[in-house]
């Protein structure tokens, strides 16, 4: 997957604000501060297209980025950040669920998991929900550079066991070293070529 152009298009809170459903989309989901913005910027070879922040919970709308004028990356609001008000958090669930349920051009969801932590209830429930919707899921283990290679492998095995994933269903990633970038490009390129047909992870 070669990136020629990448531009922010719009932010949305409801279907009427989404771009026209013509181009295929890949959505990115994960906890606040898991590294979503860093992953997207690295994949697109841009430093500041997606704004990163030291304050978790900054992404509060669904953000659409048009890539190569051929497909979208969709940045979903991060979840699990306690400092965001309960009222605000309650808005995010229905907003994201509506997008996932209704978006006909959505090809797959990239779920980010910090390799230093074990998945929580939110990650398990999200994978189950996406399988129910017959949407493929790619799990990215972020911040891999924080561990040695042997520790990466051991932690990845534990996380896969927790999420009931196979070895080829996760990719180790580091924004600092770009570890995993080529592999993720290849997988996403394949996802964009076909519509989801079942609820299996990739």
From TrEMBL:
InterPro entries per the UniProt record, alphabetical: G_ENGB_dom, GTP-bd, GTP-bd_ribosome_bio_YsxC, P-loop_NTPase, Small_GTP-bd
Entry keyword Aminoacyl-tRNA synthetase: no
PROSITE patterns xrefs: G_ENGB
Gene3D superfamilies: P-loop containing nucleotide triphosphate hydrolases (3.40.50.300)
Signal peptide: none
One GO MF term: GTP binding
Residue ranges annotated for the EngB-type G domain, each copy included: 22-194
Required co-factors: Mg(2+)
Function recorded in the entry: Necessary for normal cell division and for the maintenance of normal septation.
Recorded family membership: Belongs to the TRAFAC class TrmE-Era-EngA-EngB-Septin-like GTPase superfamily. EngB GTPase family.
Record-linked PANTHER family: ENGB-TYPE G DOMAIN-CONTAINING PROTEIN, MSS1/TRME-RELATED GTP-BINDING PROTEIN
Name of this chain's protein: Probable GTP-binding protein EngB
Classification of source organism: Bacteria, Pseudomonadati, Thermodesulfobacteriota, Desulfobacteria, Desulfobacterales
Gene behind this protein: engB
